[in-house]
Amino acid sequence: MSGLPRVTVWNENRHEQTDEEVAKIYPDGMHAPIANHLRNEGFEVRVATLDEPEHGLSEEVLQQTDVLTWWGHKAHREVKDEVVERIHRRVLDGMGLVVLHSGHYSKIFKKLMGTTGGLYWRTSGEKERIWVVNPAHPIAEGLGEYFEIPQEEMYGEPFGIPEPDSLVFISWFEGGEVFRSGCCYYRGKGKIFYFRPGEQIYPTYFHPKVLQVIKNAAAWASPTDGITDRSASKGEIDPYKIDLINRPESIKWNQTE
Amino acid sequence: MSGLPRVTVWNENRHEQTDEEVAKIYPDGMHAPIANHLRNEGFEVRVATLDEPEHGLSEEVLQQTDVLTWWGHKAHREVKDEVVERIHRRVLDGMGLVVLHSGHYSKIFKKLMGTTGGLYWRTSGEKERIWVVNPAHPIAEGLGEYFEIPQEEMYGEPFGIPEPDSLVFISWFEGGEVFRSGCCYYRGKGKIFYFRPGEQIYPTYFHPKVLQVIKNAAAWASPTDGITDRSASKGEIDPYKIDLINRPESIKWNQTE
Amino acid sequence: MSGLPRVTVWNENRHEQTDEEVAKIYPDGMHAPIANHLRNEGFEVRVATLDEPEHGLSEEVLQQTDVLTWWGHKAHREVKDEVVERIHRRVLDGMGLVVLHSGHYSKIFKKLMGTTGGLYWRTSGEKERIWVVNPAHPIAEGLGEYFEIPQEEMYGEPFGIPEPDSLVFISWFEGGEVFRSGCCYYRGKGKIFYFRPGEQIYPTYFHPKVLQVIKNAAAWASPTDGITDRSASKGEIDPYKIDLINRPESIKWNQTE
Amino acid sequence: MSGLPRVTVWNENRHEQTDEEVAKIYPDGMHAPIANHLRNEGFEVRVATLDEPEHGLSEEVLQQTDVLTWWGHKAHREVKDEVVERIHRRVLDGMGLVVLHSGHYSKIFKKLMGTTGGLYWRTSGEKERIWVVNPAHPIAEGLGEYFEIPQEEMYGEPFGIPEPDSLVFISWFEGGEVFRSGCCYYRGKGKIFYFRPGEQIYPTYFHPKVLQVIKNAAAWASPTDGITDRSASKGEIDPYKIDLINRPESIKWNQTE
ipTM of this model? Predict the structure, then answer.
């Protein structure tokens, strides 16, 4: 892929409407600092939220999205299954997905992982220290050996995920827990990154290192080779077209998607 | 786990009823040679098929199953979602799952993988040569460097699966394809093995090396440490119980499953 | 492999001779509680130490060893290269290797990993909490979600190792660090497990859960399928013998070891 | 890293001097088409060969190298150990390494892998079909589902390598073998890619898809975050510098490289 990806920053955007404490921290929504940072870094950015029609994620929007970031929390159940299916298909076709914090329990993440996404948690303003365990990985760029978030919610192991294809970060929490907090996955033609921090009652998405990670992740998750546009096939889904070069004519190929 | 696992051999068992050619090869069903072999090897074996009530996979049966093997093909859609949910839960709780051949496209495999399970295929009686690429893995026991199946259906890459946690076999096909034909996955407390061969029109499940692999896989996929029995919790699912040792009392732990 | 493996418990055994504090904790050497536990669990166990001829690891001993455990610390440099070569070869031929604590910096571990084995460390009697992050793995058997060692040396990331083929444990330390403390590797026909705890000034190798892990690891690392005995080939090493079945005679196979 | 990496294309360059057949195909050396292609793609490229002083890989050259490509075959033994050590250190510090074809058996590759690098081989001009099994990986960009090389040497499994951190390609050969022909590894701060094709008697390095892979690999293996320059530390190697923020002063950190 040439050029920086087109990113759609998706946010549930409910806490910001109903919880004064959150609204003070994120007056323009939690998506705002993320979207602003990515724009400043040269990405083409749009924002979408739960309460828009189709959650702001129509077929048309997805077709113009190379990487989707996802923050959801208390309204996972309200996300429509047909939109989840649409995103799932798009990821397998090549779109990147960056799942943030409580998105571990979103429908789309659980569908892509095949596991519960379960974990332990405690909200008591503990310090989180995020250690880089794969310094060679592009998502570790510019972070040094670790960085700290002064106050965050704790997420603890066991985390109900497949073993990551690359594990980039492990978090340490004051209270005695660890967490695989930066996890890379390949699925179909798409790349997925789960990144732990981001409880709404802390100003985590203004933290420079957190924003750096999200930027690195958006760049890494960018499609390798364009995105297969299966929506355009009008029902006749034939995602894999292959030439039968140099074969006996009597041998035919079939394809199960 | 001490002792050999209790295995339930599940078979769609339709081709055997409707297709004379298949019935000749497998007069007692495709499950029969698999079940017989595992019994001879000392496993405790039961058989279950699609057309039994609840597909033979009631809550009670699953509670007595340490490892489930799965062969399905033309009736994937008929498998009830509630049974799929039950198996999915049981796998995450520790039950092993050995998915055979066209089971790549079963509901349970796709749900656990999060991907399409798609592949290329061609049924023209080609030779398949199965290479062992991880000779250290227990599933490779007793196989040597490769083994051959004189006539099989071809399955070809790209195969729509997550990158295996261990890749044990790669198949070579006469017509020009390769396939990741022995794939290990950890999911929750459970272990999953996908094994490629087994088209119904060939006597593949009488092949000694194929039976050896299924036996090896059943042993490997056996629960590590018992199976969490969440069915018994009657709605109050609290799978992770943890002591709050050495902590301030004001710090509580919560758990999202 | 049938039957429990023959284990050789190797210990540098120097601190026990020169450091009174250590000698009090381990009057019979640090190898003693490990060897005793494995014997009690039914393994066939022998002990070998640095100051024996050939470090107690002659060709003959290795030929009778299915799994080798390794504890070394201050005398890594004294281990002879020819013995390291012998062990390296034996591991690739199928022998299991369980590397304990400061063995992260042994010649054999670095040779097998290809990396520095570097890490941070601090000896100040901190609590270590070891979290199980792959509860499906056989090495996690019987441990629950985590266990604690009241006082241990700290080892911290970044740890100079290849990304493990399976990561089973992550340690949390009071002072603010995390560590990948249970790491599985496949190399050739052999299996390797690195396990972090075991600083000589603490009675770690009497900790029941630590002993449980070592036992689990020895069982897991046991050879899958016998061990190729290349020492017997008298110089003509031809480890991979393969039949040229079903091929044109004009096509020959060659082999580079 | 911003900007394209500085690539040093290393070639043994002996066959070209002594074998007429090879000289006809590669009159300017096998490095020439690789270097030319990378230059055309905008990389800053230099060439180094075995018979130059220090094999053309002085400390100074390595300090100006972000990615090194390596083709060696019949003179592996002549590569000086001190140069191998230098490259090894540089890779762990962040330099990318792209190992080509018979480089599987080079000192540097075996040292980084910890395994034999062994394989089967046969030179009989067979067709190789290279299948992309991880279409999401950047190294798969622009290749489609597979590509073919009309005549190549066969390399067959078992291949004596660690399980790749990502497996991108699997090769199919006419004679009945498969091979993991595109293998990614993270080691320290460095990234390594092994790519199979390139026997000297075929014009493989003029094949557009082969050149595309080498370009993709050079971009992927580019350092994430600069390269730690340990050569500059004049003996006092202290690669990991870390602040002791927010800790009791009595707790000190130590570091073993």
Answer: 0.91
